[in-house]
Amino acid sequence: MCRLYIYAALLLSPALAAAAPVPQADLPLTASVPGGVAIVCVGRAPGPAPQVVFEGQRVLVSRVGDAWQAVVGLPLALKPGEHDLAVLEGEKAERTVRFEVGAHDYETEHLTLANRRQVDPEPDDLKRIAREHERLVRAFSTFSDFEPEDLVFDLPSAGRVSGGFGLRRFFNNEPRLPHSGLDIAAPEGTPITAPAAGRVLETGDFFFNGLTVILDHGRGVVTMYNHLSRIDVAKGERVARGERIGAVGKTGRVTGPHLHWSVSLNNARVDPALFLSREVRAQGSRALAPASLGGAPAADREPVRCGD
Ligand SMILES: [Zn+2]
After folding, report:
1. Which of 35, 67, 101 marks a domain boundary?
2. Which of 9, 37, 296, 300 to pair with 237, CA 20 to 30 A apart?
3. How far is the CA of 64 from the centre of ligand 1 (A)?
4. Residue closest to 206 by CA, chosen among 130, 132, 121, 118
């Protein structure tokens, strides 16, 4: 409501449009580090939204006041330094917009698993894991035409945040891929709800992830829910914000019942805490201060402006 009012005011007053800070409550927090989200101005509105590509993947472009902002997911494996977005406007030739990615040292975590096969899978498991990996990458690479209804999410389950994003993990002292989501510990059967409106992109039983639901929120914004005890939705179904999609369990590679929640933008898994409202982060544990912000206390959303 408030936003509509501000947009109306901008339309009525060109002088105000030039000076007023742009409301920003509808975008995630920015953290231009691997595993974070960069918000990069890619053009002036009105006019059609430019198409933006980063590392071969289409990128979400959102209008904020008088600017088009690319909301870029930065993979955990991305090298700090300068990176380029390819920007296409209608028939116009491609141009490049450069942005800076800083470094961030994520914490280390050691976990012990009784099931050796979950640490060193057998040859048949490896084949299954490879097939499932392809299926997951296909889901995360989806770029649907519909716009995300909201980019500020609810927590998908009640519970204690037991594992932050980006942790450099060792299973039984062997290094494995860093933690690509947020863990919420809760008793088996605790409801899991959609943190925002979307469409069910995938469901299945995966070797590491256990019973899994993947939601498409539009334009490359994809979320994943792992280790479920049950799945309450079917592929292709639409879900409303707050609608139940499954329940917490301990299927797949786990040390106990919890929800693993991943958020992906342009096929890059990013810190889900960046998408939570300040109120939710303020109530949560230290793990809800985005790890990609150095685990610092919840920062305010900085208005993002287009430089001239
Ligand atoms: Zn996890």
Report:
1. 101
2. 37
3. 33
4. 132
Same domain for 166 and 47: no
Beta bridge partners of 160: 185
pLDDT tens column, 187-209: 999 999 999 999 999 999 999 99
- Domain housing 95: 3-101
227 and 134, same structural domain?
yes
* Centre of ligand 1 from the C-alpha of residue 31, in Å: 21
Q: Which two tokens stand for residue 98?
A: 């450069």
Going by pLDDT thresholds of 50, 70 and 90, the confidence category of residue 302 is low
Tens of pLDDT, residue by residue over 2-43, are 333 333 333 333 333 333 333 444 788 888 999 999 999 999
Residue 210 to residue 257: CA distance in whole angstroms: 11
Average pLDDT over residues 242-260: 95
Task: Specify the number of domains making up the chain.
Answer: 2
Query: What residues contact 152, with CB distance under 8 A and at least 6 apart?
Result: 25, 26, 28, 275, 276, 277
CA angle 173, 73, 153 (to 5 degrees): 95
Examine the domain organization and report whether 278 and 130 are in the same domain.
yes
Return d(Cα 290, Cα 29) in angstroms, integer.
9
Q: Which two tokens stand for residue 84?
A: 């380029």
Residue 51 pLDDT level (bands cut at 50, 70, 90): very high
Residue 228 has pLDDT above 50, yes or no: yes
The pairing of strands 57-58 and 95-101 is unpaired
Could you tell me the distance, in angstroms and rounded to a whole number, from the CA of residue 200 to the centre of ligand 1? Answer: 20
> Residue 16: enclosing H or E segment and its boundaries?
helix 14-19
Beta bridge partners of 64: 67
Alpha-carbon gap, residue 275 to 284, rounded angstroms: 14
Say whether both 57 and 137 belong to one domain. no
Q: What's the CA-to-centroid distance between 302 and ligand 1, angstroms?
A: 29
CA 274 from centroid of its chain's CA atoms: 8
CB atoms within 10 A of CB 192: 26
pTM: 0.85
